[in-house]
Amino acid sequence: MTGPAVPFREIVLKVHSRCDLACDHCYVYEHADQSWRTRPKTVSDRVIARTAQRLAEHAKTHALPSVSVILHGGEPLLAGPARLRRVCEEFGSALSGVADLDLRIHTNGLQLSPRYLDLFDEFGVKVGISLDGDRAANDRHRRFADGRSSHPLVLKAVELLREDRYRHLNLGLLCTVDIENDPHAVLDALVALDPPLIDFLLPHATWDDPPPRPDGSPTAYAKWLLAVFDRWQEEGSPVPVRLFSSVLSTLSGGPSLTESLGLAPTDLVVVETDGQLEQVDSLKSAYEGAAATGFDVFEHSFDDVAAHPGVRARQLGLAGVSETCRRCPVVRSCGGGLYTHRYSSAGDFDNPSVYCADLEALVRGIDARTRAAIVSPALTERRELAAEQHDLTRTLLAGLHDALDGRGGARWDEAWGLAGVLESSGEGAAGLDHVLAHPYTRTWLLDVLEGLHAERPEAVGQALRLPAYVAAAAVRSGLDLEVPADYRDGRLFLPTIGELRLAGPGETGRARVRAVGGEFSVRREGGGEWIVPRGADSPGWLPVRYIVAGSAPGFALDDLDPYRDCFEAPAAPRLGGTDAEAWSRAVGRAWELLERGAPQQAAEAAGSLTTLTPLLAGRNAQRPHGYGTVGLVMTEDGEELAVSLLRGLRRTRLRALLDVTDLYALDGAWEYRLPWERNTKVPFSGLLAGTHERVGLSFLVPRFMDGVSEALDMMDSAAEPTVGGMRLLKSLRDEVRGVHGTSGMNVLMNAVDHEPVR
């Protein structure tokens, strides 16, 4: 086992080792480990004090901002108010000034009273209660030793916790699943109590002692939980359900929200009433001593426990599940199930969960029911993708404003205020939107934010390019608004508009920019004024040129923006007039081929592509940029340029999707051999990028279809794709069908050499 141990952020303190109920599904008293019989009934002052000291040391060593202490049993309320007060005081004192303390208690609720809740209110102790549903469901297992029902007393405790004075202490309800109970009745009963959270727990079981399955179905528990899920959705998800929220989170690429699902490493340790340090309590279901470490709070630190092989085994994530689980596409959501549920005397814990079929059916069932609702609209709507990209740029600009925290001084504040003035009018807002949507505005923002984070001294100066962006927006809007902007090295660059020479090389200063009809004026502080026609070259003025190609609305040919050097090949310098005309002709021919051979892709590109940047042959460090740009190496060969253009469009679209939605998770956990390059292995991200690109290129050059079907099959059965990723894979299959159904697919094939285009 490699890598550092994960520090504990949560401890379970057993404050009492006996219980006032006789639940027949309890892992403490009814399963394999019977060590409770030798434990002290109540935790001692010595154990409390030493545990608090150990936790404070651990939090300080690992600089933990917060830790949780869960008071447990047995039934923890049997310890009594005085003992529980002692626990709260000791931990509060030990953690004061070290880490925030989150105190919780999990109880069956039978002893709960205002006396306890007033104590918990004093120390901020949150309360979770076990309840298995309506009376019929709860009484199936949660009874007194003499068979009496516990349900009325539990309801009384829940109602007490719902009172206004105690509601802030309510953690929610824990329900152990029994498939003999009516799933709808169970959910309805729990929801009627208006808890802040419901947590469903599969009954603890192993391969040696499997869960009951009255009808023999391997997916009976999934069927029961999906019936609950359907009811929950029908009712508008009235209460958060941790199990469902966790599956939905992982399907979208997020983290697991519960230890019983997902691959997050364990960060929990148990302290028994005698001070013994143990692993997670549920291991008591596996075999006698399964949870033991041989350590105690008197002689050992929490770091000692964290390094224990049994604990480390539960911190391995994907590497800690069985080989069967590693090959399963739902492992990212189920995580191999609860560690305890994997146990068998023959294979130890190196097995799938005894609930394996249930977990797979549950994940797939929730996926099928929710996929359409949780997929980002950016995957299906081109305009939505552009809108989300624009929102991202605005969010980054707001983030830069916050990150500067006044360091931009009066110049930043002035420009920020003028941007607000533009926002207040329709024309001004449209001009500002245009400039912020420029792809290299994103590059500028990310570059400055990275510089501020790295504390690079020039970062604040780079941020002060904002006035030039605001000035460009004002010019575009045509509003009668004067905007001060800085010129550098004698030049004033207005993004999306052009560059004006105001002074000699190396000179810096301020100028005031104002729109004047279809032109704009620039008045330099210290003398000099220019009236600039926006669309044509003039002495000292270099405008951003535009190319009109086919039916497309036209693209900026940006060979000026200082942040355009962000492609795999270096950006070309400003083109001369002849070269610019050659570029326009070549792009026009390439676009004609694109419209004939791949009309759907050409139409999509016409609605999303805004900027083309000439590149030089060679290698370059790629940097992020916004949506809507492609960099191209100059060539008169329209066919080659068409392929390069389409390749660039595919790459920029995939990057834009990844900016706003998670398409996969756990990238790099597995490797895949490229079907079109058999000696090369790549992570899922590389396989997806290559397949996405080749599907697009095959519209023009059909041989790019080689290996695509195999790659799609591999990704369909992989664990990494999120719901959004699976939607993208489906769209790629739809595109593949479009390739084979397109009569014009051989347009470019007939025009180019049959060697692969690279």
Which structural class matches the secondary elements?
A: alpha/beta
Sheet with most strands: strand arrangement: 6-5-4-3-2-1-7-8-9
What's the total number of strands?
Answer: 22
Query: Major sheet, described briefly?
Result: 9 strands, mixed
Radius of gyration: 32 Å
Quote the beta fraction.
Answer: 5-15%
Termini Cα gap:
43 Å
Principal-axis shape equals elongated
The stretches of 5 or more residues where confidence is low (pLDDT under 50) are 740-758
Helix content: 40-55%
Number of helices: 25
* Average pLDDT number: 90
Can you characterise this structure?
- This is Radical SAM/SPASM protein FxsB, inactivated metallohydrolase extension form.
- Residues 5-239 form the Radical SAM core domain.
- InterPro entries: AKG_HExxH, Aldolase_TIM, rSAM, rSAM_sf, rSAM_SPASM_FxsB, Sulphatase_maturase_rSAM.
- The protein is α/β, with parallel strands linked by helices.
- The longest helix has 23 residues, at 382-404.
- Mean pLDDT is 90; it is low at 740-758.
- The protein contains 25 helices and 22 strands.
- 44% of the residues are buried.
